[in-house]
Amino acid sequence: MKTAVRFSLSGLILSMLALATVTAMVVDDEAVSRTALSKLSVNMGFGAIETADDGEDALKKLTIMGNTHGIQPDIMFVDIHMPVMNGPDHMWTMVERDVDCIIVLVSGLDQETCNIAEQLARMRGVHLAGVIVRPVIKSELSELPSNLR
């Protein structure tokens, strides 16, 4: 059974940004899922969309984005289970590197595993907006907090 999307963004300041200026990154090892979520994000009105195959690839791209363009994503959709560097390890590394980015976990894993990953992320200080259980549908993205729309 699929559970509704849960979001909580207390203390995060995206309400001042128009959605078209929000930069997003989709981090997922499955090309089909990565492409689908990227297209949904564009359809929802997000600005620039960057993609990465896993957590390590995302960290490399974050470094390039920061060094070359002086930017980082405002929001990152991160799969939990990926090879090379999984979602939780990627999030912990971002916290260690002081990357200030909103994270939305995306996973096809069971709800209990998603709940555990969510609790661990919050305990580690990740700016976690919530969890979306795959398959992601447009109505779930529209449930993002109103200050992200």
Describe what is shown at a glance.
With 149 residues, the chain is an alpha/beta fold. The chain has helices at residues 31-44, 55-69, 87-96, 111-123, 138-141, and strands at residues 6-7, 24-27, 49-52, 75-79, 102-107, 128-133.
Describe it.
This protein is an alpha/beta fold and 149 residues long. The chain has one domain (28-148): 3-Layer(aba) Sandwich (Rossmann fold), CATH 3.40.50. The protein is built from 5 helices and 6 strands; from the N terminus they run E-E-H-E-H-E-H-E-H-E-H. Strand 5 (102-107), helix 4 and strand 6 form a beta-alpha-beta unit. The relative contact order is 0.21.
Q: Tally the structural domains.
A: 1
Helicity level: 25-40%
The side-by-side strand order for the widest beta sheet comes to 1-6-5-4-2-3
What is the straight-line distance between the termini? 27 Å
Would you spell out the secondary-structure blueprint of this structure?
Elements: E1 6-7, E2 24-27, H1 31-44, E3 49-52, H2 55-69, E4 75-79, H3 87-96, E5 102-107, H4 111-123, E6 128-133, H5 138-141
Overview features:
alpha/beta, six-stranded mixed sheet, Rossmann fold, 18% strand
